[in-house]
Input
Amino acid sequence: MSRSDLPPAPDAPFEAPWQARAFALAVAAHDAGLYDWPEWSTTLGRALQGAAPDGSDYYDRWLLALEEILQDQGRPDPR
Output
């Protein structure tokens, strides 16, 4: 797929403030050494299986991946 085949980038990368916070939380957890990017990529990939084709639930899946990766390390459930 070439760059010209991709849809145009949105005006803002996040549709809602909670999405930006979820993104920032995942980056902060990585920066704190809680996981590495390959581990995150694998976990997010699993969470994205069966996601909405239009990407409307992307950040919902992002949060699921973050919860999974932290729970797998024995961290408490945030709920």
Observations:
- DSSP finds three helices and no strands in the chain.
- The chain has one domain: 14-72.
- The two ends are 40 Å apart (CA to CA).
